[in-house]
Design a protein that fits this description.
With about 120 residues, the chain is mainly α. The chain is built from six helices and no strands.
Length: about 120
Amino acid sequence: MINLVQNINKMATIEQLRSGLIENIQSIKNKDLLVDLSNFVALRSQLKELVKLSKYQKMMLEMSEEDLKYGRTISHEELMKKNEAENLNEYQILMIEKGLDDIKNGRVKSNKEVMENADKWLNSK
């Protein structure tokens, strides 16, 4: 059925397709089907306006398709572990930067003060 429709679509002009659709729609008696068709047409036109990918997004999608094609995939669990490790590294970098900023601006505490504060912070959570 789909192949037949595709073959007809390739050979028909836009006007022929439109006329055929109108005839078919006029013969439909099922209100739910007509509502669904109406919603589909409305949604389709909205999606065309909403989904406009940048060149970068298109490139990323193409790269993803290549990865899938050549089996360059990982499980969700592996991805979560990798993200967790990367986030931890980012957190560590931020903490080091904050520490350097504290030192530069004279906000320095002794080891004893840090340990006391660490105990308070850990026990309050």
